[in-house]
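Review box. Two proteins, two foldings.
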Amino acid sequence: MMERPRKMKRVSFSAVIHKEGINPYVDPPLGTGLKIGRGKGVIPVKVLLDGQPFQANLMPLGPQRTKAGPGQHHRLYLNGLMRQAVGKDHRDKIRVVLQLDLKPRVEPMNPALARALKKDPQAQKVFKGLSPSHQKELKRYLNHLKSQEALHRNVGKVMGYLRNAKTRWFGKKKPVKP
């Protein structure tokens, strides 16, 4: 007997876009993470903003920022592309639909970084020793650069970071030694 695929739960709500510093966000109802199938930590979600689809993450608020219990209060930050696509900004009301996103989010290896790592086995060893999220962060950074000059310059910076134990990347120390 074949089992039918389980329908993913959705949470729908309307909210006003607020700002924390320079970061626009909406607060889903308390317990949204649990309702869609996850309670703790960062929750990957499929989002509909006024009917427009996006991928995002629900970010947990720590105990110093909410009176709600652990795993109860998450925040959805709205980047510029999202707001521009729906024509909404700070203080506007927006309709939101959230659903747990189970599809793995894989960041492809940048070809320029791959070539540089192939030429430097020591840096490649350090890169492979980084946590998957740290690797993803470096790959995403390089993949979103707009010019070849910026890519070349920043591949050099990443390689310097991987070769030198004292070098930091956006304030981060490497968790492994070369």
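Next protein.
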Amino acid sequence: MRGPALLAAVVASFGAWHAVALAEESACANSAGAPPIVAQGQPVATQKPADVPRVELAARLAAAGATATDQYERMRENAARELAGRPDGSGAVSAEELRAADDAIARQVRIDQGALPPPGFAALARQPGRPQIAGLDIVYLNPLGDPARANAWQNIIAHQTEGPPGSARREAGDQFAHPTKRGVTIWVETDGTVYWSTAENVIPTHGEGGDRNDNKYIDNTKTYHTVNKTNSIGVEFIGNYPDVAKPVTPEQVRAWLLLVPFLQERYGIPPDRIYAHNWIDFKDQRYCEGCELAALARKLGYCPSGLR
């Protein structure tokens, strides 16, 4: 089972996973490296992205003959910042960064004109800036840089927070302002909107150091004091307030099953390195934090191209 059919089956089985806390042995089911596609019956977002890459905006201006305008110059400079992993207006732009932006803008113009094909999923996942994945509404408070210069992320941890619906943007903004405070790199709203809050070489404070060693959910001999904040990128799902046992929304599930292969491809993370917070740390006994999400992601079985 590959691509759309696998993703449809995983999403359709979500209800059955509410009662499941144990992790299955996971393997790279998607050995052909097909991009994650929301299959028939699972709607794909068709609205324009909330956060358009600055390279694309600059390319539109260039194609319209507006390269001599102040608007184009500002967008060109922000495109250079974007590709360097910096927010709009952040710091001076070097000549080298501008050359990289000019190359990217020219390439985007050719893509828009149909002279070049758009990048495939694997290439897109490793791009700097604001990569946009079909069906995923993602907002980059901090753009991405060169993945080779990112922190050496080896694991993905699914968290759930007692923040009320509608609070993901605020939480991500607080994380952006204080990158290493307690929190995570990525926040997911109940409507499925994803907020990338910090630079990918910054380590927020999350997890309890991998202190679980009872093998209740997984074999903790592989995680005890080794799966922690320094090597694990955290994804936080908003919305289980005031009832902590409230499951994530279907929109969050769909976003997760598009986001997690993107993270796996970008950082070369196999499916058996996706964890629920409750699997690796002693957490709230009222519910199993992140367990359904991590189990679904492992079941999806996406295999990064570098591991095939």
